[in-house]
Amino acid sequence: MSRILAAVLTMTAAALLAVGAALGIVAALEATPKQPDTPLITYQNAGQER
């Protein structure tokens, strides 16, 4: 009986660990990185000032 209980507890722990890892991966993939707010190209116009 104790072997069956150990097997059930091991399977439950493995399933919870797999679900937690899957949710963690999904959360990491949905996280958006901070985008820089600096323009890549700037043009200098001689007659205009900002």
Task: Work out the strand percent.
Answer: under 5%
Distance between the termini: 80 Å
Order of helices and strands: H
Radius of gyration over all CA atoms, rounded: 27 Å
Poorly predicted regions are: none
Number of helices: 1
Determine the mean pLDDT.
Answer: 87
Tell the overall outline.
rod-shaped
Described by strand count, sense and barrel closure, the largest sheet is: none
Structural category: mainly alpha
The number of strands is 0
Q: What fraction, in percent, of the residue positions are helical?
A: 55-70%
In short, what is this structure?
With 50 residues, this protein is mainly α. The chain is built from one helix and no strands.
Labels describing this entry:
single chain; 50 residues; mainly alpha; 58% helix
Structure write-up:
The chain has about 50 residues and is mainly α. About 60% of the residues lie in helices and about 0% in strands.
Helix and strand arrangement:
Blueprint: H1 2-30
